[in-house]
Amino acid sequence: MADDAKRIGEHAEDELHPTHIRRRTTPPLYGIMAEFDNPSDLVAAARQTYGAGYRRINGYSPYPIEELTEAIGFTRTTLPLIVLIGGILGGLGGFFMQYWIAVIDYPLNVGGKPQNSWPAFIPITFETTVLCAAFAAVFGMLALNKLPQPYHPVFNAPNFAMATRDRFFLVIEATDPLFKHDDATQFMKSLEGAKNVSDVEV
Question: pLDDT digit string (tens) for 4-57?
């Protein structure tokens, strides 16, 4: 009786003061990846995946494939808008910088010409428009592509180093609303030309 009471007391103490922490045995999953030998199979598989309802998908290839971006549903980008905003801000900034200098901060009477001689401001305004639009394009592209990115979960996938040589890869991300591990794995294996279907850990 005393032994039973002692064991109950020790069990209650363990619950109040756990001596160990349970660790996750399964690493978090980024998605499911399939490998392909040629771009035609990759594009066809991407279209089939998009047609099946998956939206969080991505393709990787050694070189740009125009059909691939359309196949995965990537048809719009905000980069043109970013460049437009950068150009507008650059143009306005260049013009009003010259206006502030010539009219407000340090006005000069040059041959009786009006201080706000806006035709003379056009070359600098054009230059600052192009300059800021170019900077917006570069930094906007880096931001939208999440670059620089020293690490990405797909680096953990088998044979992914071949993506810069002669292999092509398709990924369904685990964040996709339709993602179910077993169903997604079977679907990827059913794609024509798919090989080495594997989990991609975070």
Answer: 545 544 554 444 454 444 455 567 999 999 999 999 999 999 999 999 999 999
Closest by alpha carbon to 46, among 191, 148, 175? 191
Spatial distance between the Cα atoms of 145 and 142, rounded to a whole number of angstroms: 5
* Edge-to-edge strands, sheet with 57-60: 57-60, 168-173, 29-36, 195-201
Three-class SS state of 55? coil
DSSP run (H or E) holding 10 = helix 2-16
45 closest CA partner among 61, 29, 68: 68
**Domain residue extents for the chain:** 28-202
CA dihedral 133, 139, 145, 148 (to 10 degrees): 160
Would you tell me how many other CB atoms lie within 10 Å of the CB of residue 32? 26
- Report the predicted TM-score, pTM, of the whole model to 2 decimal places: 0.73
